[in-house]
Amino acid sequence: MALTLTVSIARRSKSRSPLSFAIVITCENKSINSSLNLFKNFTALAPNRGEFEQMVNKTFKSISDLGFAAIKVTQTHNIQNMLVTLGDQGICCADENTFSVLPAEQKNVVDVTGCGDTVTAVYTLGLLQGLSMVSATKLANDAAGIVVTKFGTATVTPQELDNAN
User: Which of 30, 62, 67, 89 is the most exposed place for a label (fewest CB within 10 A)?
Assistant: First the structure.
């Protein structure tokens, strides 16, 4: 399944070739009390909004404020990309210069189990295939939108991702 999904993602890549000799380190943080220092030099960190707010010890009144904070985290901790999942509001992705918010498509949510894992895995596969931060995030957002419509820990197929676009 992973190889099939990788091939499907590769078809979306502008360069048509994966990153060469790259070590990509991504993490979906489940340790709420983790210091951001643990994640220095990571390729990407993908907490949900509550985890991110606890990591930076701040509650955000707006997604825009959260996006600017994510930029600051990438700058101060040398993290290439931050993805902050926002539940039914989508995903905020940021690098050291900018942030984007990709809205979630309205779905009949059945179960969110494993949704963050799906975002992290599909985002990482997208990066490895040469997709930009925003394109990889869109792909991950589409995948998350699929798995939440299934009960329990679920997978996404290449056909489902193709149909999501």
Answer: 62
User: How confident is the model over 15-59, as pLDDT tens digits?
Assistant: 444 444 345 666 666 554 567 877 888 888 899 999 899 889 999
Instruction: Compute CA 107 distance to the chain's CA centroid, rounded to the nearest angstrom.
Output: 18
| Cα end-to-end span (Å), the chain | 20
pTM for this predicted structure = 0.81
Tell me which residue of 116, 153, 92 sits closest to 30, measured CA to CA. 116
**pLDDT > 80? residue 135:** yes
Q: What are the residue numbers of the active site?
A: 117
Are residues 41 and 80 in contact, defined by beta-carbon separation less than 8 angstroms? no
* Cα 121 → chain centroid: 8
pLDDT recorded at residue 20: 41
- For the chain, what are the domain ranges? 2-157
DSSP assignment of 23-90:
---EE----TT--GGGGTT-SEE--BHHHHHHHHT---SSHHHHHHHHHHHHHHHT-SEEEEE-GGG-
